[in-house]
Write a structure and sequence with these properties.
Elements: E1 20-31, E2 34-45, E3 49-53, H1 60-68, E4 75-80, E5 83-84, H2 90-95, E6 98-101, H3 113-125, H4 129-135, H5 145-157, H6 173-185, E7 191-195, H7 203-219, E8 225-229, H8 233-239, E9 242-247, E10 250-255, H9 257-261, H10 264-271
Bound molecules: adenosine-5'-diphosphate (ADP) and magnesium ion (MG).
Adenosine-5'-diphosphate is lined by residues 31, 34, 36, 54, 56-62.
């Protein structure tokens, strides 16, 4: 296959040496008098799944909007593979390897799973072709061998091969979410932002999606990283390599799932523990006074 400089997705190989795929540095966002985010930082390493959790109104969606470029912060920086992209539009961040899915899937209900992935793949290879394909349905059936191989690979990765020919309208929500993820992956991102991908799913659907997410990351050749905003704390703790906890616009904890699970500030935010968290000199939260009978965060 030929690689050309005109390929919008071509990415400088030297940037791949940077272990940090995406970073937010000291982000502050105000909405009028309300501080939605206050000096929040976050680091997403290559090949990692980072979970972003916090009670309603904590600032999760706001942070995701800042990361993806839909919202410009009042202070702070966003770094994409080492480059300052704070003033770069969402569209241009996408060409530099950042993709996202939305809480409400935006799919064409009459198209099949395969057709969605073909369209998404073509949008990357020939950006303006998507509209031609949409206006001329016959174009959808003219496929090249490279495209077939690529789309087949995506279908297999997402365990969607058996529903490839089904119109998405006929599919359960969990499968539709996977199609959304597939569309985002067709652009070959280095970082994929997922806004509440598990919402509305039953336990089986959630577990299936979680295992596919892990597989996507583990099978990625170029260190794909995921950032998952999720209400379901137990799911995030089970899935993530690193977890960031927001509360009232502040980052109250960051660490591995085990570290976050035993964090007093997190327990206070979620469970209303009476004992206030003790801050140490390093800004870490001290271990709770009474270990042992500790309830699982979000485990109820
Ligand atoms: P989360 O996603 O964690 O539930 P959000 O990021 O949506 O939280 O919201 C954080 C805070 O900012 C909330 O108090 C919310 O009401 C407020 N907020 C979010 N978006 C806007 C907006 N566009 N205008 C005004 N206030 C907003
Ligand atoms: Mg939200």
């Amino acid at each position: 296959m030929m690689t050309t400089a005109t390929d919008a997705g071509t990415i400088d190989a030297t940037a791949d040496q940077d272990p940090v795929a995406l970073a937010a540095d000291d982000i502050t966002v105000h909405f009028g008098g309300l501080t939605a985010l206050s000096g929040v930082s976050l680091e997403v390493r290559r090949g990692n799944i980072v979970g972003l959790v916090g009670p309603n109104g904590a600032g999760k969606s706001t942070l995701l909007a800042v990361l993806s470029g839909l919202l410009s912060p009042d202070a702070g920086k966003v770094l994409l593979r080492g480059d300052d992209v704070t003033d770069v539009s969402a569209r241009h961040r996408a060409t530099r390897g950042l993709a996202r899915t939305f809480q409400q899937p935006e799919l064409f209900m009459g198209l099949t799973v395969r057709e969605h992935l073909v369209l998404a793949y073509r949008a990357r290879v020939v950006p303006h072709r998507m509209w031609r394909d949409m206006l001329d349905p016959r174009a959808l059936f003219r496929t090249s061998p490279g495209e077939v191989e690529k789309v087949d690979g995506l279908l297999e990765l997402l365990h969607l091969t058996h529903v490839a020919k089904a119109p998405v309208a006929a599919l359960p929500l969990g499968v539709i979410r996977l199609v959304e993820v597939g569309r985002a992956l067709a652009s070959q991102p280095r970082v994929l932002l997922l806004d509440e991908p598990l919402s509305g799913l039953d336990l089986h659907g959630s577990e299936n999606l979680i295992s596919v997410f892990r597989e996507i990351v583990d099978r990625s050749d170029d260190g794909l990283a995921l950032v998952i905003v999720e209400h379901d704390v137990a799911a995030v703790l089970a899935l993530s390599d690193m977890v960031v906890v927001l509360d009232f616009g502040e980052r109250i904890a960051v660490g591995t799932p085990d570290e976050v699970r035993s964090d007093a500030a997190v327990r206070a935010a979620y469970l209303g523990d009476v004992e206030p968290p003790q801050r140490t000199a390093t800004g870490q939260t001290a271990a709770p006074a009474v270990p042992g009978s500790r309830p699982e965060v979000g485990g109820a």
